[in-house]
Every structure is written in structure tokens, then in C-alpha cells.
Specification:
globular; CDP-alcohol phosphatidyltransferase; single chain; mainly alpha; 323 residues; transmembrane; membrane; CDP-OH_PTrfase_TM_dom; CDP-OH_P_trans
């Protein structure tokens, strides 16, 4: 039988939906706002970039300019200027979504791309924090506002780093190395040592930054490190299905906290504080609201990691012992 126009349309729609789903990391680690808003926009940008031959890293770099520009616009106390900044930040995050989707669609992944992608948000929020501190001083705050700005900035770095790390750990367990960007400091140290300051100056500097970043993530997760090294040593050809299923079941509830301490929640509240012209609240929100969530997230992940490490060491569950 000949395929009808309706059937062709349905097949095309299914293929398009499948391609979109494949551009996502995992439903487990995606936030609803991202799935409903940022990922569809990012997907269309990624399709355009793939069509004209633009690679992921230039997309990331452009996102940095829009994000930093947004921060600069938040310095103004004029709401209409702030709204332009809000739209710029939303577009920057759409580009940040697009670069990862483009990399997965075209299989154009690189260590530099991974580092750039992580650093992009840091550039955005450095600009935002500096702008809000300067704005605060214009509004009558003393230089002490910089102390709160720096503390909030340091909190943000740790929150984002650990959320990103836990997402990649989750992806490692459910998808393996091909579906995760999980790194470890031993391998990164070896790569760093092979680079020369004379012939690889730029990459050496970037590698040092990323090595320190990864070491920080590992220092905050000692039980998780024990589990990862045991798993990598024992299951070199892939994880047992039972271990994947059980880890996913226990770890998946923690993924919502990685979303809370990253972009969407903090930006929605930042926009609220800007609308009511009380931008200084953002620093206290970061320190006194998001940090306790970070602590809860880290403790929860450490408990899950300790449980599975003990299960593997004891050998009580035979289904964990082989593939």
C-alpha cells in the first residue's frame, strides 16, 4: 500500500521528535523548564548551526558575550534596561543549551568544548555579581556589599560545580562513558603534565584551571570517589544491569536538587529581585537558601555512594559482581 500524506507527516514528526530526544543528555537530569523552553530553542539553533557548518565552541563563545552583556545591563536601575538584560541572559542560556545539543547531534565533542561550556556560566555570573555590587553602592550600600557579592559568587561556583558533577555521575551510571562527561583528576593530571608551557601555553593554562575544578569536585565527594574507583576497576567492560537499575532508582530523586542550585531557579529569583528593585537580595538568596540545598544534595549523594560501595565490597548481591 502507498504511504498516505498523513502517514508521511506522522513519520516525519516522529523522526523529528526522536532527533530532539537524542539531543538531550537524559530525561533523568533535565529540568522541566529546560525541556519545555530552552531545549526546543537550543535544538532549533543547533539545527541551523549544523546546516551552515558552525561548530559548538563558537556557539559557546557567543553565549559568553550575551551573558556578560546581560550582567552589565543589570547595573542600571532602569527596569527597561534590566529587561533587555534578562532577555540577553535567556538567549545566552539558549545558546549554552544549543552548543551541547549541537555537539551530540554532530558528535563534535572535545575537552576544550567541555571546559568552555562549564566556564561560560562563570563568566556570566562574574559580570552579574560585579554589576550588582556596583549597583548596590549606587543605592547606598557601603563597600561591604562586595563581601556579600564575593561570598555569593564563591557559593555559586561550588553549587554549579557539584550539580554538574552529580549529573555526570548519574549519566555515567545509566549511559556509561559514551553518555557522560565525567572526568577524574588522575587522568587530567597526566594530560596536564604532557603539555608544555612553551608550545601549549594556552591549553596548559586551561588544563590547569580544569584540573583544579575537578579536584574541588572530588574533595567534596569522598564516598563517591571510593565508589567510582571501585566501579572503574571492577567493571572495565560495563556495569551490571542490576547495579545500573538500583543506582538510578536511589540517585534519581537527588537530580532535582542539582537543577535547583543551577541556572533556572537562581535566575528566576534574580529577575524577581530586579523587578522589585531589590537586587541585593540575590546575594543572600545564594548564600542562605541555595547553600543549605547544596549541603543536603552533597550529603544525599554521599549516602547513596556509601551504600553502593559497601554493597560491592561485601559481595552480598551476586548480581553486582559480573555483567
Amino acid at each position: 500500500m502507498a504511504t498516505t500524506t498523513t502517514e508521511k507527516s506522522e513519520l516525519k514528526s516522529e523522526a523529528s521528535d526522536s532527533a530532539f530526544q537524542n539531543s538531550l543528555k537524559s530525561r533523568d537530569t533535565e529540568e522541566q523548564i529546560d525541556i519545555w523552553f530552552y531545549r526546543p530553542i537550543g535544538y532549533q539553533i543547533a539545527l541551523f548551526c549544523a546546516k551552515v557548518g558552525i561548530r559548538p565552541n563558537p556557539v559557546t563563545i557567543v553565549s559568553i558575550f550575551f551573558g556578560v552583556g546581560a550582567g552589565i545591563l543589570f547595573y542600571s536601575q532602569e527596569l527597561w534596561v534590566n529587561v533587555i538584560g534578562m532577555l540577553s541572559l535567556v538567549f545566552a542560556n539558549s545558546l549554552d543549551s544549543a552548543d551541547g545539543q549541537l555537539a551530540r547531534m554532530t558528535n563534535d565533542k572535545s575537552r576544550l568544548g567541555r571546559i568552555l561550556d562549564g566556564a561560560a556560566g562563570d563568566f556570566w555570573f562574574i559580570a552579574i555579581h560585579v554589576a550588582l555590587c556596583l549597583r548596590g553602592m549606587n543605592e547606598g550600600w557601603t563597600a561591604w556589599i562586595w563581601v556579600w557579592g564575593v561570598l555569593a559568587g564563591a557559593s555559586h561556583v561550588v553549587q554549579s560545580a557539584m550539580a554538574d558533577y552529580y549529573r555526570n555521575v548519574h549519566l555515567f551510571f545509566i549511559k556509561g562513558t559514551s553518555g557522560s562527561e565525567l572526568d577524574n583528576s588522575r587522568e587530567l593530571q597526566a594530560e596536564y603534565d604532557r603539555l608544555s608551557w612553551t608550545s601549549n601555553l594556552g591549553m596548559k593554562f586551561v588544563a590547569r584551571f580544569y584540573l583544579n575544578y575537578t579536584k574541588m569536585q572530588e574533595q567534596f565527594s569522598p564516598n563517591l570517589q571510593k565508589l567510582l574507583w571501585l566501579v572503574r576497576d571492577r567493571f572495565r567492560n560495563g556495569l551490571p544491569e542490576k547495579l545500573v537499575t538500583d543506582f538510578r532508582a536511589q540517585n534519581r530523586p537527588l537530580m532535582k536538587y542539582t537543577n535547583i542550585v543551577q541556572f533556572n531557579t537562581r535566575v528566576l529569583f534574580l529577575f524577581l529581585w530586579l523587578f522589585i528593585d531589590q537586587s541585593w537580595i540575590y546575594f543572600f538568596f545564594d548564600i542562605f537558601i541555595l547553600n543549605p540545598i547544596l549541603i543536603y544534595m552533597v550529603n544525599g549523594q554521599e549516602k547513596v555512594s556509601k551504600h553502593f560501595h559497601q554493597e560491592l565490597i561485601s559481595g552480598k548481591n551476586n548480581e553486582y559482581q559480573s555483567i
